[in-house]
Design brief:
11 helices; 241 residues; 0% strand; mainly alpha
């Protein structure tokens, strides 16, 4: 008597099919080789089309780290001049009469003013190359920044944009004029004129957050307060950014 064993049926059928397929294929060796080569070429073509995920992720990760690095580089001058026990400390770089200050006797001295403006200049030395790399997609795997204009970003030569940025009246010109007048006429808080102490990091952080928060709130109001006000006050800015 032949006993039917259900769990053997799929295996027997699979084995029979496999042997039959092999026997059938062996009868046509040339077709097998051609089909194999065709499949191999297709796989190689698909692999070439697939992006290198690791390389793409690495390039995308460069942008946030580079922009984060810009912050300490922009503050390089004050960081170096206030580093105690360092050869770059201000007390070892300049004569004492250049920075010592008695508010009851002395007039404001130009060293602090000059270093403040110089810090902005040095910050741009690091900021401009990073912006150039960002604008051309070098920090984002070749992907250029997305334009917020419906008609696309205005095309301009980098040298033209740099010249416009550095020469605009509300930029370095206004900054240098404002700081020079308020500094030399003794209109700033008295602590500004003293070189004593170090950077107060907690107060600096509070100042940055407050300034950034106020600017964000003003920016949102310009967009949301009134369409007519936006067109006259802020829309021209978005011609470029």
């Amino acid at each position: 008597a032949v006993h039917y064993t259900p769990w053997l049926a799929p295996r027997t059928q699979h084995a029979s099919t496999t042997i039959s397929s092999v026997n059938h294929c062996c009868a046509y060796p040339a077709q097998i080789q051609l089909a194999g080569r065709h499949r191999l070429h297709l796989r190689l073509a698909n692999l070439k089309k697939m992006p290198n995920v690791t390389e793409h992720s690495l390039k995308n990760s460069i942008l946030p780290w580079t922009t984060a690095l810009v912050w300490p580089l922009m503050a390089a001058l004050p960081l170096l001049l206030t580093a105690e026990d360092s050869p770059t400390h201000y007390s070892k770089m300049f004569p004492a009469e250049w920075y010592s200050y008695d508010q009851e006797v002395d007039r404001p001295k130009p060293l602090g003013l000059t270093l403040g403006i110089l810090a902005v200049v040095i910050g741009h030395v690091f900021l401009i190359p990073v912006f150039y790399a960002y604008r051309n997609g070098y920090l984002s795997g070749g992907k250029h920044p997305t334009s917020i204009q419906s008609s696309g970003a205005r095309d301009y030569h980098f040298g033209e944009g740099l010249k416009t940025h550095l020469s605009q009246p509300e930029g370095f010109v206004l900054l240098a004029l404002y700081l020079s007048l308020t500094w030399m006429f003794n209109l700033m808080p008295q602590s500004y004129y003293s070189f004593k102490g170090t950077i107060q990091w907690s107060r600096l952080f509070t100042c940055l957050v407050s300034q950034d928060g106020l600017q964000y709130a003003m920016h949102r109001l310009e967009h949301r307060l009134s369409p007519e006000f936006y067109k006259k006050s802020h829309k021209p800015h978005h011609r470029f950014t």
